[in-house]
Model the fold of this input.
Amino acid sequence: MVSKVSFSRLRQSIAEEISDIKFLLRSGSGLQIVLKYMKFRRKRRSIERKYKPATKAFVASEIKDLQLSNDWFVGHLPIWMWLFERFDLRSRAGLKALEIGSWEGMSAFFFLKTLPNATLTCVDTWAGSDEHDKEAMSAVEGRFNANLVGHDGRVTKFKGTSYAYFMEKPKDLTFDFIYIDGSHLADDVMIDAVNGFAALKPGGIMVFDDYIWGYYVDANDNPANAVHRFLEMKRGKFELVYLFQQVIIRKTSR
Ligand SMILES: C[S@@+](CC[C@H](N)C(=O)[O-])C[C@H]1O[C@@H](n2cnc3c(N)ncnc32)[C@H](O)[C@@H]1O
Done:
Protein backbone atom coordinates (compact mmCIF):
# COMPACT_ATOMS: atom_id res chain seq x y z
CA MET A 1 0.00 0.00 0.00
CA VAL A 2 1.25 3.51 -0.84
CA SER A 3 2.07 5.37 2.38
CA LYS A 4 0.89 8.94 3.04
CA VAL A 5 4.48 10.23 2.79
CA SER A 6 5.25 8.61 -0.57
CA PHE A 7 1.87 9.72 -1.93
CA SER A 8 2.56 13.32 -0.98
CA ARG A 9 6.09 13.06 -2.52
CA LEU A 10 4.58 11.71 -5.73
CA ARG A 11 2.06 14.54 -5.81
CA GLN A 12 4.81 17.10 -5.28
CA SER A 13 6.95 15.55 -8.00
CA ILE A 14 4.07 15.62 -10.50
CA ALA A 15 3.34 19.25 -9.61
CA GLU A 16 7.03 20.15 -10.18
CA GLU A 17 7.08 18.34 -13.47
CA ILE A 18 3.96 20.15 -14.71
CA SER A 19 5.35 23.50 -13.61
CA ASP A 20 8.68 22.82 -15.41
CA ILE A 21 6.89 21.74 -18.59
CA LYS A 22 4.80 24.94 -18.57
CA PHE A 23 8.02 26.90 -18.09
CA LEU A 24 9.71 25.12 -21.01
CA LEU A 25 6.74 25.69 -23.33
CA ARG A 26 6.70 29.39 -22.37
CA SER A 27 10.39 29.46 -23.32
CA GLY A 28 9.73 28.09 -26.80
CA SER A 29 10.76 24.48 -26.20
CA GLY A 30 8.38 22.63 -28.55
CA LEU A 31 7.12 19.12 -27.88
CA GLN A 32 10.34 17.24 -28.73
CA ILE A 33 12.22 19.01 -25.97
CA VAL A 34 9.39 18.41 -23.48
CA LEU A 35 9.58 14.67 -24.21
CA LYS A 36 13.36 14.73 -23.71
CA TYR A 37 12.88 16.61 -20.44
CA MET A 38 10.42 13.94 -19.23
CA LYS A 39 12.82 11.15 -20.22
CA PHE A 40 15.85 12.68 -18.50
CA ARG A 41 13.87 13.72 -15.43
CA ARG A 42 13.29 10.00 -14.82
CA LYS A 43 16.78 8.92 -15.85
CA ARG A 44 18.44 11.38 -13.47
CA ARG A 45 16.92 9.53 -10.50
CA SER A 46 18.86 6.37 -11.27
CA ILE A 47 22.02 8.42 -11.94
CA GLU A 48 21.63 10.19 -8.58
CA ARG A 49 21.14 6.86 -6.81
CA LYS A 50 24.21 5.33 -8.43
CA TYR A 51 26.53 8.27 -7.69
CA LYS A 52 25.18 9.19 -4.26
CA PRO A 53 27.97 7.44 -2.32
CA ALA A 54 30.70 9.00 -4.50
CA THR A 55 29.07 12.43 -4.16
CA LYS A 56 28.89 12.10 -0.38
CA ALA A 57 32.52 10.99 -0.23
CA PHE A 58 33.67 13.93 -2.39
CA VAL A 59 31.78 16.46 -0.27
CA ALA A 60 33.11 14.97 2.97
CA SER A 61 36.74 14.67 1.90
CA GLU A 62 37.29 17.62 -0.47
CA ILE A 63 34.65 20.34 -0.37
CA LYS A 64 34.71 20.79 3.38
CA ASP A 65 38.07 22.60 3.13
CA LEU A 66 36.99 25.11 0.47
CA GLN A 67 36.06 28.71 1.21
CA LEU A 68 32.48 28.98 -0.01
CA SER A 69 29.68 31.44 0.65
CA ASN A 70 27.10 29.30 -1.15
CA ASP A 71 26.74 26.16 -3.20
CA TRP A 72 25.27 25.95 -6.66
CA PHE A 73 27.17 22.89 -7.70
CA VAL A 74 26.96 19.89 -5.34
CA GLY A 75 23.51 19.01 -6.72
CA HIS A 76 25.11 18.50 -10.16
CA LEU A 77 27.92 16.22 -8.98
CA PRO A 78 26.13 12.90 -9.74
CA ILE A 79 25.40 14.02 -13.32
CA TRP A 80 28.98 15.20 -13.87
CA MET A 81 30.37 11.95 -12.44
CA TRP A 82 28.09 10.00 -14.78
CA LEU A 83 29.14 12.23 -17.70
CA PHE A 84 32.86 11.83 -17.02
CA GLU A 85 32.43 8.06 -16.84
CA ARG A 86 30.23 7.81 -19.92
CA PHE A 87 32.81 9.62 -22.08
CA ASP A 88 35.80 8.21 -20.24
CA LEU A 89 37.15 11.70 -19.52
CA ARG A 90 39.27 10.61 -16.52
CA SER A 91 41.71 8.73 -18.69
CA ARG A 92 41.78 11.30 -21.51
CA ALA A 93 45.29 12.78 -21.81
CA GLY A 94 45.69 16.52 -22.45
CA LEU A 95 42.01 17.34 -22.00
CA LYS A 96 41.41 21.09 -22.43
CA ALA A 97 38.43 22.69 -20.72
CA LEU A 98 36.88 26.14 -20.56
CA GLU A 99 34.57 27.45 -17.86
CA ILE A 100 32.57 30.63 -18.36
CA GLY A 101 31.51 31.80 -14.90
CA SER A 102 33.66 30.46 -12.07
CA TRP A 103 32.47 32.39 -9.00
CA GLU A 104 34.37 30.93 -6.01
CA GLY A 105 35.82 28.07 -8.02
CA MET A 106 33.68 25.18 -6.81
CA SER A 107 32.88 23.70 -10.23
CA ALA A 108 36.47 24.37 -11.36
CA PHE A 109 37.82 22.64 -8.25
CA PHE A 110 35.69 19.54 -8.86
CA PHE A 111 36.76 19.45 -12.48
CA LEU A 112 40.48 19.66 -11.73
CA LYS A 113 40.32 17.22 -8.81
CA THR A 114 38.36 14.62 -10.76
CA LEU A 115 40.18 14.88 -14.08
CA PRO A 116 43.87 14.82 -13.20
CA ASN A 117 45.01 15.08 -16.84
CA ALA A 118 42.94 18.16 -17.63
CA THR A 119 43.77 21.86 -17.85
CA LEU A 120 41.10 24.49 -17.34
CA THR A 121 40.65 28.13 -18.38
CA CYS A 122 38.34 30.01 -16.01
CA VAL A 123 36.67 33.13 -17.43
CA ASP A 124 34.83 35.49 -15.10
CA THR A 125 34.44 39.24 -14.67
CA TRP A 126 34.24 38.65 -10.89
CA ALA A 127 31.79 41.53 -11.06
CA GLY A 128 28.73 39.31 -10.62
CA SER A 129 25.65 38.78 -12.76
CA ASP A 130 22.27 40.58 -12.61
CA GLU A 131 21.17 38.38 -9.68
CA HIS A 132 24.30 38.92 -7.51
CA ASP A 133 25.19 41.42 -4.81
CA LYS A 134 27.96 43.43 -6.52
CA GLU A 135 29.44 44.60 -3.19
CA ALA A 136 30.44 41.05 -2.27
CA MET A 137 32.35 40.31 -5.46
CA SER A 138 35.93 41.12 -4.40
CA ALA A 139 35.60 38.56 -1.58
CA VAL A 140 34.24 36.08 -4.14
CA GLU A 141 37.31 36.49 -6.32
CA GLY A 142 39.56 36.13 -3.25
CA ARG A 143 37.88 32.82 -2.44
CA PHE A 144 38.31 31.65 -6.04
CA ASN A 145 42.06 32.35 -5.79
CA ALA A 146 42.34 30.56 -2.44
CA ASN A 147 40.28 27.53 -3.50
CA LEU A 148 42.34 26.85 -6.61
CA VAL A 149 45.75 27.50 -5.13
CA GLY A 150 46.72 23.81 -5.25
CA HIS A 151 46.10 23.64 -9.02
CA ASP A 152 48.31 26.51 -10.16
CA GLY A 153 49.91 24.78 -13.14
CA ARG A 154 46.63 23.53 -14.57
CA VAL A 155 44.35 26.53 -14.31
CA THR A 156 44.46 29.76 -16.32
CA LYS A 157 42.44 32.71 -15.06
CA PHE A 158 40.96 35.25 -17.47
CA LYS A 159 39.35 38.24 -15.76
CA GLY A 160 36.90 39.84 -18.17
CA THR A 161 33.70 39.09 -20.02
CA SER A 162 33.30 35.85 -21.95
CA TYR A 163 32.80 38.03 -25.02
CA ALA A 164 36.24 39.64 -24.50
CA TYR A 165 37.74 36.19 -23.90
CA PHE A 166 36.46 34.77 -27.19
CA MET A 167 37.67 37.88 -29.06
CA GLU A 168 41.15 37.58 -27.55
CA LYS A 169 41.69 33.82 -27.55
CA PRO A 170 43.86 32.43 -30.37
CA LYS A 171 41.64 31.15 -33.19
CA ASP A 172 43.26 27.70 -33.17
CA LEU A 173 42.75 27.13 -29.42
CA THR A 174 39.93 24.60 -29.11
CA PHE A 175 38.42 22.71 -26.17
CA ASP A 176 37.21 19.23 -25.29
CA PHE A 177 34.82 20.49 -22.64
CA ILE A 178 33.04 23.82 -22.12
CA TYR A 179 30.87 24.80 -19.17
CA ILE A 180 28.57 27.79 -19.74
CA ASP A 181 27.62 29.30 -16.39
CA GLY A 182 28.33 33.04 -16.76
CA SER A 183 25.70 35.70 -17.37
CA HIS A 184 22.26 34.04 -17.49
CA LEU A 185 20.63 36.71 -19.65
CA ALA A 186 19.43 34.89 -22.79
CA ASP A 187 21.37 37.21 -25.16
CA ASP A 188 24.63 36.44 -23.32
CA VAL A 189 23.89 32.72 -23.11
CA MET A 190 23.32 32.69 -26.87
CA ILE A 191 26.62 34.52 -27.54
CA ASP A 192 28.48 32.12 -25.22
CA ALA A 193 26.80 29.13 -26.87
CA VAL A 194 27.70 30.21 -30.40
CA ASN A 195 31.28 31.19 -29.51
CA GLY A 196 31.64 28.08 -27.35
CA PHE A 197 30.40 25.74 -30.07
CA ALA A 198 32.88 27.26 -32.55
CA ALA A 199 35.68 26.66 -30.03
CA LEU A 200 34.57 23.10 -29.24
CA LYS A 201 36.40 20.18 -30.86
CA PRO A 202 34.29 17.63 -32.73
CA GLY A 203 33.40 15.08 -30.06
CA GLY A 204 33.69 17.80 -27.40
CA ILE A 205 31.11 18.32 -24.68
CA MET A 206 29.29 21.52 -23.77
CA VAL A 207 27.21 21.97 -20.60
CA PHE A 208 24.67 24.74 -19.98
CA ASP A 209 23.75 25.50 -16.38
CA ASP A 210 20.48 26.89 -15.01
CA TYR A 211 18.33 25.70 -17.87
CA ILE A 212 15.14 25.74 -15.80
CA TRP A 213 15.65 29.07 -14.10
CA GLY A 214 13.08 31.82 -14.31
CA TYR A 215 14.79 34.85 -12.78
CA TYR A 216 13.77 37.31 -15.50
CA VAL A 217 10.11 38.29 -15.70
CA ASP A 218 10.09 38.11 -19.49
CA ALA A 219 10.49 34.38 -20.30
CA ASN A 220 12.46 35.34 -23.43
CA ASP A 221 15.27 36.70 -21.25
CA ASN A 222 15.93 33.45 -19.35
CA PRO A 223 18.62 30.93 -20.37
CA ALA A 224 16.07 28.36 -21.61
CA ASN A 225 15.05 30.61 -24.49
CA ALA A 226 18.66 30.87 -25.70
CA VAL A 227 19.23 27.13 -25.24
CA HIS A 228 16.12 26.30 -27.30
CA ARG A 229 17.11 28.66 -30.13
CA PHE A 230 20.65 27.36 -30.08
CA LEU A 231 19.62 23.67 -30.21
CA GLU A 232 17.36 24.47 -33.14
CA MET A 233 20.13 26.37 -34.90
CA LYS A 234 22.66 23.55 -34.52
CA ARG A 235 20.25 20.71 -35.21
CA GLY A 236 22.06 17.71 -36.73
CA LYS A 237 25.43 18.87 -35.42
CA PHE A 238 25.24 17.53 -31.88
CA GLU A 239 24.05 14.63 -29.78
CA LEU A 240 21.79 15.55 -26.87
CA VAL A 241 23.42 13.84 -23.88
CA TYR A 242 21.24 15.16 -21.06
CA LEU A 243 18.49 17.71 -20.48
CA PHE A 244 17.13 18.53 -17.07
CA GLN A 245 18.41 21.32 -14.83
CA GLN A 246 21.47 21.38 -17.03
CA VAL A 247 21.65 20.71 -20.75
CA ILE A 248 24.58 18.68 -22.07
CA ILE A 249 25.46 18.23 -25.73
CA ARG A 250 28.28 16.49 -27.58
CA LYS A 251 29.38 18.11 -30.82
CA THR A 252 29.26 15.72 -33.75
CA SER A 253 30.14 18.09 -36.61
CA ARG A 254 30.86 21.78 -37.36
C1 LIG B 1 26.55 31.26 -11.15
S1 LIG B 1 28.11 31.94 -11.03
C2 LIG B 1 29.19 30.61 -11.50
C3 LIG B 1 29.18 29.46 -10.52
C4 LIG B 1 30.28 28.45 -10.70
N1 LIG B 1 30.34 27.89 -12.02
C5 LIG B 1 30.07 27.32 -9.70
O1 LIG B 1 29.39 26.34 -10.01
O2 LIG B 1 30.61 27.39 -8.60
C6 LIG B 1 28.14 33.02 -12.41
C7 LIG B 1 29.44 33.81 -12.59
O3 LIG B 1 29.42 34.39 -13.90
C8 LIG B 1 30.12 35.62 -13.86
N2 LIG B 1 29.71 36.42 -15.02
C9 LIG B 1 28.57 37.14 -15.18
N3 LIG B 1 28.53 37.72 -16.39
C10 LIG B 1 29.67 37.35 -17.03
C11 LIG B 1 30.22 37.61 -18.32
N4 LIG B 1 29.57 38.40 -19.22
N5 LIG B 1 31.41 37.07 -18.65
C12 LIG B 1 32.07 36.28 -17.74
N6 LIG B 1 31.60 35.99 -16.51
C13 LIG B 1 30.43 36.52 -16.16
C14 LIG B 1 29.74 36.22 -12.50
O4 LIG B 1 30.71 37.15 -12.08
C15 LIG B 1 29.66 34.96 -11.62
O5 LIG B 1 30.84 34.76 -10.90
Q: What stands out?
A: The longest strand covers residues 200-208. The chain has a mean pLDDT of 95.
